[in-house]
Write a structure and sequence with these properties.
CATH topology of the largest domain: Immunoglobulin-like
Number of strands: 18
Helix content: under 10%
Distance between the termini: 91 Å
CATH architecture of the largest domain: Sandwich
Number of helices: 2
Low-confidence stretches: 1-70
C-alpha cells in the first residue's frame, strides 16, 4: 500500500533509502525537512542538507557553526538553538552529511520565530560549536501567560435577571476559577531556558453605568438574606437613580480585572500585567409608595 508523507522543501536535498515500517517515518521527522515515499517497508527520504541555501538569511552555516536570523512580516525574528546530540550518530549516518565522526559534531537544532511558534527541529552537522542566540526570558514569560488562557471576571452579582432598587445596597462579587481569578501557572521553554509564570487577579474595577466606578481588591463577598439592607463589606455600590433613561432601560456594568503575573527563569525574574473584562446590563428601579 502506498503511503506518502510530505513537508515543504526549503533547501538542497539528497536521497536515501531506509528500511522502516510505514509509520516509522514519524520518528525520522526531526532529521530534517523534506518528503518521503513509502512502499511497503522501505521509505525513500528527501533529507534537507542545512547550510546549502546560498547564504540566505535564516540559514545555518555548516562551516562556521553560526546561525543566522530572518525577519517575519510582523518584524519578529527567526532564532535557532542547538544542543549537542548525545550519543553522537554512528559512522555512516545521514546526520553526518558525508563527514566522519570526530570531524565536527552533530547537533539537535530547533529554529522558529522569536515568539517560539512554528518551531522546526532537526539534526545538523556543524564544523564548530554553534554560537547560541540568546533567549529573552520575558518573551518566554509571555508565552507562558498565553498558555493560561486568562479570561475576564466571571460575574456572579449583579445578574442580568436580578431586581435592584435605588437606595438599596448592591453587592458585587465574582466566581473564582483558575482562568477567571487565579492563581494560574504555566511554563515555557526554549534554548535550554525554562520560565515559570504565576498569575492572579490583583484588583477588579467596576464601572456601574451611572458614572460611578468602584475598585475592589478582592473577589467580593456573596450576599445572604441574613445581611438585610447592610452594605457589602468588600465590594458594593448604591444607585441614586433609576436606569429608566439608560439605553434599553438598563445600566451597562463592566468589570475589568487586572492580572498580576510574576515570573522567573533563566536567572531572571519579573512581573507582567494582563487586563481582561466582562460586562452585564442591569435594571435599577425605584420603590413605588402607595398612599
Amino acid at each position: 500500500m502506498l503511503r506518502r508523507h510530505s513537508v515543504a522543501i526549503t533547501t538542497m536535498t539528497v536521497l536515501a533509502t531506509l528500511s522502516v515500517s510505514p509509520n516509522a517515518y514519524a520518528d525520522k521527522a526531526p532529521k530534517g525537512s523534506g518528503s518521503t515515499d513509502c512502499y511497503l517497508f522501505t521509505c525513500q527520504v528527501e533529507v534537507t542538507v542545512p547550510g546549502q541555501d546560498g547564504g540566505q538569511a535564516g540559514g545555518s552555516d555548516t562551516a562556521t557553526g553560526e546561525s543566522g536570523s530572518s525577519a517575519g512580516d510582523d518584524g519578529s525574528k527567526k532564532v535557532c538553538s542547538y544542543k549537542l546530540a548525545d550519543p553522537q550518530p554512528p559512522a555512516g549516518s545521514l546526520d553526518w552529511e558525508g563527514h566522519e565522526p570526530g570531524d565536527g559534531a552533530v547537533y539537535e537544532q530547533e529554529c522558529g520565530w522569536e515568539d517560539f511558534t512554528n518551531t522546526i527541529a532537526r539534526m545538523v552537522w556543524l564544523a564548530n560549536p554553534p554560537v547560541q542566540q540568546a533567549v529573552d526570558p520575558e518573551i518566554l514569560a509571555q508565552q507562558a501567560v498565553d498558555k493560561m488562557l486568562l479570561l475576564g471576571p466571571d460575574i456572579a452579582s449583579p445578574r442580568a435577571a436580578g431586581k435592584y432598587t435605588v437606595g438599596v445596597p448592591m453587592w458585587m462579587w465574582v466566581n473564582q476559577s483558575a482562568t477567571t481569578y487565579g492563581p494560574n501557572s504555566a511554563s515555557a521553554s526554549a534554548g535550554g531556558i525554562t520560565v515559570t509564570a504565576v498569575a492572579k487577579v490583583s484588583k477588579i474595577v467596576w464601572t456601574m453605568g451611572d458614572g460611578a466606578s468602584v475598585t475592589c481588591n478582592g473577589p467580593g463577598t456573596p450576599y445572604t438574606s441574613s445581611q438585610g439592607m447592610a452594605q457589602s463589606p468588600t465590594c458594593g455600590h448604591v444607585y441614586s437613580k433609576t436606569s429608566a433613561g439608560a439605553p434599553s432601560g438598563r445600566f451597562p456594568v463592566t468589570a475589568t480585572s487586572t492580572w498580576t503575573v510574576n515570573w522567573q527563569g533563566g536567572g531572571e525574574a519579573g512581573q507582567l500585567t494582563e487586563v481582561r473584562q466582562n460586562n452585564v446590563d442591569v435594571a435599577i428601579g425605584e420603590v413605588q409608595v402607595v398612599r
